[in-house]
Structures are given as structure tokens and as C-alpha cells.
Amino acid sequence: MAAYCPRSKPESLMAQAASARIAPIPSMKSITLLCLSLFVFISPAVQSQEKAGQDPMTSILIVVGPSNHAPGTHEVAAGGRLIEYCLENMTNISGVEGDVVYAWSEVPRPHHEYASIVFIGDSFPGEKLPDSDQAMADISTMMKRGCGLVCIHYGVGLQKDDVSQDGDHPLLHWMGGYFATKCVHHQSIAKAYRDAKIDSAVPDHPPSRGWKTFTLFDEPYINNYFGPDNNQLLPGAFALATSLLPPENPRKEIVAWGIQRRDTGRGAGITLPHFYKNWQIEELRRFILNTILWTAKREVPEDGVQTTLPALETFEPESVEVGQKKKKALR
Ligand SMILES: [Zn+2]
After folding, report:
1. What range does the domain containing 65 cover?
2. Cα–Cα distance for residue pair 268/278, rounded to 1 Å
3. What is the number of structural domains in the chain?
4. Which parts of the chain register pLDDT below 70?
5. In terms of pTM, does the model score above 0.90?
6. Half-sphere exposure (CA, 13 Å, Cβ side) for 107?
């Protein structure tokens, strides 16, 4: 919702620092300028700092993919706007801004300025956007430099045509797992459960800060896919949250997971929420926002991200309540 403001880069500083590098005997001033130039080079997010003395801004890209679910469910566009609002209005942490886009060509800033990307849509938007080839190529470049990645609910999904026969796909390595839809190698399960109890799997980990076990009526995905070695988690990957599901034959299912990648990037998949109304559940919202901050390499407060949510209508969903899918008009 926030308007995009182009930001100037401190080019004069870079030029001064460059000249400092060729001085035969570095003076204190040149060392200082060199350090400053390295700081600017190492931390692209700092380049968006408007005035000296302000906290560096952390920019999060929020990519909304196509969705065909009934009103009140998924609501990916409203969900994307809600995430942006929360990131920009946290009461105990500042300096985070979000950009919501509905097509890859709309990304308003240079890609290197983003600390993390959040995807929300009906299966992984990188594969479903109209300009998906360009999106996948650019996302790959962003991941290689250590950019974070978080997928929300069906955003964690890949379909048979997206993956190779053995189930390999870049998303598996960027995020540590995915929901396999109608795939040959694996079939994950999506079903709504009235009393799904969500437990943190890593209580001391930043995404787990400030929330305890909660129970909700939702669709946490189970039997997610984590890799070719008998579905064991890849090196660096770990469970973030589990649930004992399904009720008739319960086993500890990983319903959210994360990965610390070798490229220094952090990825995470959280398979909730299916129902738009469940964004009102503070524990779930905190878990998701904590996780986004963690992937952006920002410190997560000890009591987790604190937010106050306006009425869900504010974000213009098709419906807050669950409704029927619209039927195509008959001619
Ligand atoms: Zn769903």
C-alpha cells in the first residue's frame, strides 16, 4: 500500500572512496571512506537509507500469484497487502518496508535491494506468474546472493509440470521443502482440520519467539516433500512447526519448515493460513512475521513481532467470510 519512493544512491561517496583506494599512503580520512564504501557495497539495503542517522531500511518484496480459490479462502492479494501493512506497522521494530506486486515486471526497486521475498498464491508464484521464466531467472540470481525467501500456504506448492521426474526443483533448495501437488514422485495432502494444534519445533529459534502452541480450524498441509533421501530434510533444513495429524491416524507432521542455505540465504515455508480470517490469530501472524524478519536477517525481538491488525476488510479481500466460487456467466 505504501507508495514507492525512488531513492538516490550515495554515488559521490562511492567516487570519493574509489579515489581513496589509489592513495599510496592511506590517510585516516581515506580509510574511513574506504570502510564506508565497503559498508555500502556489502549491505545493499543500506543504500536505501535516506538520511544519515536513520536505521537502515530493510525492503521485503511481496509477490502475489494467481489464485482461483473461493472468497474468504487464500485471498492472496489481500493477504499480501496485510503482510505489507504488518511489516510497516510493527510496534516494536522499525525500518522495514514492503512492496506488493502482482506481476514480476512490477517489481519497483533494483532486485539487490530486497532482503527477502514473500510469495503468496495458488502454488509457487515464481512458476505461475505470466512472466515466470524471467521471474525464475531473477529469483535464482537473488537467491545466489543470499536473499531470503518465504512462501505462505499454497505458495509452498509445486505441481507435476513444475518439477523434474525425481521431484527436484530450485524451490526445494531455496526453501527446504515444498507441497507436492499431483506429482509422480510424491503426493502431499491438503485437508482442513477443525482443531489443528500447531507446535513450535524449535522453541529457541527466532521465528518461535513470542508465541506458544495454538489451535485453529485451517488446512495445514501434511506429507510435504523434503528431498529424495526417503523424504528426509536436506542439510541445513529443519522443522519450524509440527502438528499431530490427521486426527484419525496422528503422526508428527512438519507443517512449517526453514533452511539455512550455503549461499547464506534463509528460506521458510509456512503452510497456513487457508482461511483469510485466520490472519486475526495473533500467534500465527507473529510466527509468519517473525519468520519473514529472520529470512531478511533482521533481529527478531525476544517477545516476537508485535502488531495491531485493522479490520480484515481494510485489505480489500473478495470476502472475509467463506463464500462460493463465482460461476462463469452463462451467455
Ligand atoms: Zn488452502
Report:
1. 58-315
2. 19
3. 1
4. 1-55, 326-331
5. no
6. 21
